[in-house]
Design goal:
Order of helices and strands: EEEHEEEEEHHEHEHEHEHEHEHHEHE
Shape: globular
CATH architecture of the largest domain: Alpha-Beta Complex
CATH class of the largest domain: Alpha Beta
CATH superfamily of the largest domain: Medium-chain alcohol dehydrogenases, catalytic domain
Number of helices: 11
Strand content: 15-25%
Length: 329
């Protein structure tokens, strides 16, 4: 079996394409013993894969391992009683192992995809849209509210903007370059602001009192301005720390304007409230079937040259999703 391997956790530059990998056995460690074997057509990498290559991801697996936390493909085997059957078109989360010819899926984090969705789009679908969906749900977002999105040209950012099309009033994207601004506009942003142009002040000017929700997968030194951009009662949603530093918050800023800082981590929520994942999966499958989601893929690599995939993320060059053709149709 061929796959893209991280031989040691020294960073993204050491990836190796191998053709002697063992076939996946048993069930994924997160699958509670339920085997779901998928023939991979396309796979995707994201910031957690970059962290994992450095041994810095809390859900990582020991090296050597196959990289890639998301896949799209065809079910080969499913456990008795599973809602999946051999031949089903699916996409989902694997945490690792996806950039290979076959992968073990996690049934509760797997969606069926319609024939109208390409393998490339499907590989870019699950993690970003599940995260964006969960973020807006946790934020208590209601149609007509104002939402500011950091990292708006990245995977989670583009998915969030896509879900907000025609719903937020307005959706405000914050980006750092002209190329990223163009991506944010294509993904549905009503307003695009630049990181160097006093975006927090501009956001307040545009909305009158400030935004209702800030979605932040970036972290770093922008947290204080994010709080300043919020209206009274606003919510700052902490999705990740792509900038590399974890900020600190002075609690008086929350007290004085009734602000909330809310963490966004799907798996602990599902573990505590087990009925949530089926509701999320049903929503994602309905959106895919209706054709109402448009995953943005900025980088598409053949498997043969995919050793540089994590480097795109490491250099902060990624626009939307980085997807790898594993078995082109």
């Amino acid at each position: 079996m061929r796959g893209l391997v991280v031989p040691r956790t020294t960073g993204p530059d050491g990836l190796e394409l191998r053709d002697d990998l063992p076939e996946p056995r048993g069930a994924h460690p997160w699958a509670d013993g339920e085997r779901l074997l998928v023939e991979v057509r396309a796979a995707a990498v994201a910031f957690p894969d970059l962290l994992q290559s450095r041994g810095a991801y809390q859900h990582g697996t020991p090296a050597p391992y196959v990289t890639g936390g998301e896949y799209a493909g065809v079910v080969l085997e499913a456990s008795p009683g599973s809602r999946f059957r051999p031949g089903d078109r699916v996409a989902g989360l694997s945490v690792w192992g996806a950039v290979a010819e076959r992968v073990l899926g996690i049934p509760r984090y797997t969606v069926q995809i319609p024939p109208s969705m390409s393998w490339i789009d499907a590989a870019a679908f699950f993690l970003n849209y599940a995260t964006a969906w969960f973020t807006l749900d946790r934020a208590g977002f209601e149609d007509g509210q104002a939402v500011l999105v950091h990292g708006a040209a990245g995977g989670v950012g583009t998915a969030t903007l896509d879900l907000l099309r025609g719903r937020a009033k307005p959706s405000i994207a914050v980006v750092s370059s002209d190329a990223k601004a163009a991506v944010a506009e294509q993904c549905g942003a009503d307003v695009v602001l630049r990181t160097e142009d006093g975006w927090a002040v501009r956001a307040r000017e545009l909305t009158g009192d400030g935004v209702d929700v800030v979605v932040d997968p970036v972290g770093g030194d922008r947290v204080t301005d994010s709080l300043r951009a919020l209206d009274v009662g606003g919510r700052l949603m902490v999705v990740g720390f792509a900038e590399g530093t974890i900020p600190e918050v002075r609690l008086n800023r929350l007290l004085l304007r009734n602000l909330s800082v809310v963490g966004v981590a799907l798996d602990p929520w599902e573990q505590r409230f087990p009925g949530y994942a089926p509701e999320l999966i049903a929503g994602l499958e309905a959106a895919a079937a209706a054709g109402s989601v448009r995953p943005y893929v900025g980088h598409r690599l053949p498997l043969e040259v995919a050793t540089g995939a994590l480097g795109i993320l490491d250099r902060r060059q990624a626009l939307g999703k980085v997807v790898i053709d594993v078995a082109a149709d």
